[in-house]
Specification:
The chain is built from four helices and four strands, in the order αβαβαβαβ. The relative contact order is 0.30. By secondary structure, it is α+β, with helices and mostly antiparallel strands.
Length: 118
């Protein structure tokens, strides 16, 4: 996930990344992920944040679900440059509200802070 060229550039430029992970028990398509991202941009802009983030997603197929002890679906992570842990309640609420609106089961897995030097 952190091998993407944009993410590597952010690590070089900002030293830190903050990621927020979700699991959706449904296979999300690209337009649905864009819908969620647009909702998040709107909320971030409302509070005066520029809304710079990336969304990385993976399909959890039957084989991977068995290995992880979970169910099939889509896991996705929203990655922000810098330390953004203060945004956690806003991001969690916004994404889970969007997923509830489209009637899919999901859960917030948590926050991870990544440092370039770790």
């Amino acid at each position: 996930m952190y091998q993407d060229s944009l993410i590597q550039e952010w690590l070089t430029r900002f030293d830190d990344l903050t990621s927020f992970s979700f699991m959706v028990y449904f296979e999300l398509d690209e337009p649905t992920l864009q819908f969620l991202a647009k909702g998040l941009v709107a909320r971030l802009n409302f509070i005066g944040d520029e809304g710079l983030f990336a969304v990385v997603h993976d399909t959890v197929d039957e084989e991977l679900a068995k290995a992880l002890g979970t169910y099939r679906g889509t896991s996705f992570t929203i990655i922000f440059p810098g330390m953004c842990e203060d945004l956690e309640p806003l991001i969690e609420d916004t994404i889970l509200e969007g997923l509830k609106f489209i009637r899919v089961k999901a859960e917030y897995l948590g926050i991870t802070k990544v440092n370039d030097y770790v």
